[in-house]
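Supplementary Methods, section 5.1.

A reviewer requested that the exact input to the structure prediction be made available. We therefore reproduce it here, unchanged from the version used in the analyses.
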Amino acid sequence: WDAPFVSVKPLAELDQTDDDYGPARFNDERKIYFIARRGQGAGPELWTASRGDRLQPFGEASSLNLLQPLGASAFTLSPDELTIYLYNHGLLQTAARESPDEPFGVAQALVLPQPLLQPDLPRESGSGRFYVSADVFDRRAGIYQLAELGALATPTLVLDGPASGAYSPVVSQDELTMYFASATEREDSCMTWLVWQVWVATRVSVTEPFTIHGLAPSLASRYDAVPSALSNDGCRLYYSRPTKRGDTDLYVADKARPVCT
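The structure derived from this sequence is encoded token-by-token as follows.
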């Protein structure tokens, strides 16, 4: 986890003048899903694009026409691409499909355990565990691990967030490393403000809590940065952050060689 990200690049081929954010990668980074606002006055919609391998640029993106009919504004996807979790005006929903080439079915309400207050969208790991950012009564936002979803599920606190909370968790394949977003104080030109930054935490086994190590090496920025996907080998982190022109774009951070190939 402590190997630095040495290269940060925008996914320029997907860039538009409007917002692009929340990328999720699949098929060994050959496919990407993301939210974009395309066109003046357009609302957020879910888009997808593909490429031959991770060294090539993505091809033209196409809209799934899913978020706007439902009124949703954020998403996460299961590793098999068959279940989507949606955030709709403060409500959590889920929808399923039979294959990645088919449209999603009717969205249903997603109910999480009662102790979790203001839960964020769940992120499902390859093993089927779920990670959710949520408050519990007077506790600041932390990351909870669940073996299943539903009102009767038992949440386990696995990351006690910093004072500013912990959001948007992304775990490695072995679930021993987690990247997440937390607000960090920044100062520039005699002004101080809070920006979302990428933090990193690790643990020794999936039954143990995470230990926070602080900001992810070399990813500190004066702009908000929110992680959303990690490559299978843990070498590339996909995230979104604002640009100087004011919109939000998709980025990928790459670790150094020979640590990664």
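The first helix runs from residue 67 to 70. These observations are discussed further in the main text.
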